[in-house]
Write a structure and sequence with these properties.
Layout lengths: L6 E7 L6 H9 L6 E7 L5 H7 L7 E5 L6 H11 L4 E4 L5 E2 L3 H11 L5 E3 L2 E4 L5 E5 L8 E2 L1 H8 L11 E3 H6 L11 H10 L4 E3 L5 E4 L5 H4 L4 H15 L5 H25 L6 H9 L2 H12 L1 H13 L4
Parallel strand pairs: 1-2, 1-4, 2-3, 6-11, 7-12
Antiparallel strand pairs: 4-10, 5-12, 6-10, 7-8, 9-11
Helix pairs in contact: 5-7, 9-10, 10-11, 10-12
């Protein structure tokens, strides 16, 4: 590896022995001569670290054991602080890189070196790593997007898959990194913050996979409806005033309806369906234009159908 790597990969992990081998295998298949991989492990046992250490001779790893550091956002902030590259990405212990990831990232940065954030879609995969759907962003491809344009869509729903983006380290540090008080929506918050730091580019190219399974934070974190709702409302309230007044009300209505739907779907996945009718009513109250905006920006069909496929396959 060169003295200053081209890309830093930050991996916050916790009790990840079941997944980390497949994740690192997916990274090991890429050219890594100018990449550094920083793993912050908060596991209480050695099981995950033992798997990681098997890869020490195959890739440029730095393993940091921090059993005192639980939240993934805290570990991510530490990893970014430790990173040496100008550009950084995040990879969770259960997600994957797809073939050609490094080639694509280098092309993205070379084509638009001034972008602070490169966004991209992901593939949904089930517990076994089999594809069950696509997770795309409702954004025009290969165009510089300003904060207002992105926030008008992003505040309706977080449509960014964590393993896909690449961001400038200096922009992350300048905006304060992830909010460590947000346990469910720190990624949504950081993409909103970075959108105000400079140009954002969306590349319609899938180079990562997001794994759907029953023990993920996406599932377990949504089991307390009140806290789940509050996490989303914090982000909405934090950035809503950045939307021009003339369109703010329309965006707010779609965003609050989206929150209601997310809470209702989480309740339904846990066996309760009483709020689904209320959520449907909220959507109908948006009218044709508002419902069209919600349908476009929420990616609801992709999110729901992919999870249904994972459940139906028995690999959830």
């Amino acid at each position: 590896m060169r003295e200053q790597p081209f890309l830093s990969v930050v991996m916050p992990i916790h009790n990840g022995a079941e997944w980390i081998g497949a994740t690192l295998d997916s990274v090991a298949g890429e050219p890594l001569d100018d990449v550094e991989i920083i793993i912050i492990d908060s596991s209480a046992t050695d099981a995950t670290a033992n798997v990681v250490e098997r890869y020490a001779d195959r890739m440029p790893l730095r393993l940091v054991r921090r059993s005192d550091m639980g939240p993934w956002q805290s570990k991510t902030n530490l990893g970014v602080e430790m990173s040496n590259a100008e550009h950084v990405c995040i990879l969770h212990q259960d997600d994957l890189w797809l073939r050609g990831r490094m080639q694509s990232v280098k092309r993205w940065i070379a084509n638009v070196p001034g972008a602070v954030l490169h966004l991209a879609p992901s593939m949904y995969v089930d517990r076994n790593g089999s594809p069950v759907g696509r997770w795309t962003c409702p954004l025009p491809s290969e165009k510089a997007l300003n904060s207002e344009f992105l926030l008008k869509r992003l505040l309706v729903q977080n449509f960014v898959s964590v393993p896909a983006p690449v961001f400038r380290r200096d922009a992350w540090v300048k905006c304060g990194g992830m909010d460590e008080q947000l346990w469910y929506t720190p990624d949504w918050d950081i993409w909103a913050k970075l959108s105000g730091a400079g140009p954002v580019i969306y590349h319609d190219e899938i180079t990562t996979a997001f794994r759907i399974h029953g023990s993920s934070l996406t599932v377990t974190g949504s089991r307390d409806p009140a806290e789940f709702r509050e996490q989303m409302q914090i982000v909405l309230n934090r950035y809503l005033d950045r939307i021009p007044a003339k369109s703010r009300r329309m965006i707010e209505r779609a965003a609050r309806a989206s929150i209601n739907v997310n809470v209702s779907l989480a309740a339904a996945s846990g066996g309760s369906v009483r709020d689904l009718a209320r959520a449907a009513g909220n959507l109908l109250s948006l009218g044709p234009v508002g419902m069209g905006r919600y349908w476009r920006d929420s990616r609801i069909q992709q999110r729901v159908l992919s999870r249904l496929r994972a459940r139906m396959s028995g690999a959830f």
